[in-house]
Design a protein that fits this description.
Layout lengths: L1 H15 L4 H44 L1 H8 L17 E3 L2 H5 L8 E4 L3 E2 L20 E3 L4 E3 L2 E5 L8 E5 L8 E5 L7 E3 L2 E3 L13 E3 L2 E3 L2 E5 L3 E4 L3 E8 L2 E10 L11 E6 L2 E8 L2 E10 L9 E6 L2 E8 L2 E3 L2 E4 L5 E3 L2 E4 L7
Parallel strand pairs: 1-2, 2-4, 3-5, 4-11, 5-12, 6-13, 9-14, 10-15, 11-15, 12-16, 13-16, 14-17, 15-18, 16-19, 17-20, 18-21, 19-22, 19-23, 20-24, 21-25
Antiparallel strand pairs: 7-8
Length: 349
């Protein structure tokens, strides 16, 4: 019987070519083992793929549900996570006066060492850092909270500048370019920190970064504004991580038109920040963002972006807005509970 099988194998492979029957028989003998190995690999790959899918779905649900997401947002507020002594190379912030003095060294590293409360009736706080002199250091809230912050800014006539300007949204999904000959000055940046990061923020990691900070009961008001980026923590920034804003308001109103019909209007306002490169593990709760006095928007190029968390951002990850009210007195505004406009990774929440 065994001899007949060998003869059949010899005749079969000889018909395919001048092959050595012994070599062919040897290869055939190992074929079932190779098949078993291949099946094992496929099973392993399938198991790993299924595990990865389960992990991704779990993380997505975890990030999307506020009550679950809070488990990641809130640990930085626990006493065990706080620095009890000022790390080497950092400056401790203990009072409102210390906070105000940050503007005297915009490239330093600062850490909040206790909660701060602004006195009732105190003069409005001036934002730290401007577009001309940005905050380029680091601020670590150290899990502490700032309460009662009040900011009131009236915008002066912006400098004139010529050039083509991109307007995201503006009634169409892909945005529009406008050739604006006048009144394209840099936006006013309003928040606890006005402008953070500077033009070298991308080349220097963490430059202008604000982290681990909570702000409650804040009021940010901007009037006579034609070009503004406004938020409670940052007007326009690079990186915000592990921050939150609760029970606060951001209000922008009163737009300067100048003498030309081509006056360009730009507003981005959010509960956390008006504009940012990256917002990671942050949230807002019970925050109102409003925009009023917009009667002439229909006749001027504009970009008005409002969000409960951020007005305009490049990337937002694992962050959310809860019980926020975002309103405007015109429908010529791009707004949302979370953001007004986002450039990248808008699905990765």
């Amino acid at each position: 019987m065994k001899q007949n099988q060998t003869e059949k194998a010899e005749r079969l492979f000889t018909a395919l070519g001048d092959l050595d029957p012994k070599t062919v028989a040897s290869a055939a003998a190992y074929k079932p083992q190779a098949t078993r190995k291949g099946s094992g690999r496929r099973i392993l790959v399938a198991v790993l793929a299924a595990t990865l899918c389960v992990c991704l779905v779990t993380l997505t649900v975890f990030a999307a549900v506020p009550s679950l997401r809070g488990m990641l947002n809130l640990p930085f507020l626990s006493e065990s996570e706080r620095q009890e002594t000022v790390p080497e190379g950092w400056v401790g912030i203990y009072t409102v006066e210390d906070l105000d003095n940050i503007r005297n060294d915009l490239d330093g590293q600062y850490i909040l060492m206790n909660d701060l409360t602004f006195a009732d009736g105190a003069a409005p706080f001036n934002p730290i850092g401007t577009r001309q002199e940005p905050f380029t250091g680091r601020f670590d809230g150290n899990g502490h909270v700032i309460r009662g912050l009040v900011i009131e800014v009236e915008q002066e006539t912006p400098e004139l500048r010529t050039g083509e300007h991109y307007i995201p949204g503006h009634g169409v999904a892909d945005g529009t370019y406008y050739d604006v000959s006048e009144n394209v000055g840099s936006p006013l940046c309003v928040g606890l920190f006005g402008y953070c990061g500077g033009e070298y923020a991308v080349d220097t990691p963490y430059r202008g970064m604000i982290s681990n900070l909570g702000i409650e009961g804040a009021s940010v008001t901007v009037t006579n504004a034609s070009k503004v980026r406004a938020g409670v923590i940052v007007g326009s920034g690079s990186y915000l991580a592990g921050c939150y804003v609760k029970d606060s308001t951001v209000s922008v109103s009163g737009y300067t038109r100048e003498a030309t019909d081509e006056a360009f209007i730009f507003v981005s306002a959010g509960g956390l920040t008006g504009n940012a490169d990256l917002v990671d593990s942050c949230y807002t709760r019970n925050v109102s963002v409003t925009m009023t006095d917009t009667a002439e928007l229909d006749t001027s190029p504009y970009a008005c972006l409002l969000g409960g968390l951020v007005g305009d951002a490049y990337t937002v990850v694992t962050s959310y807005a809860e019980s926020c009210a975002v309103t405007a007195d015109t429908d010529q505004v791009t707004k949302g509970n979370l953001w007004g406009h986002i450039h990248l990774l808008h699905r990765l929440m």
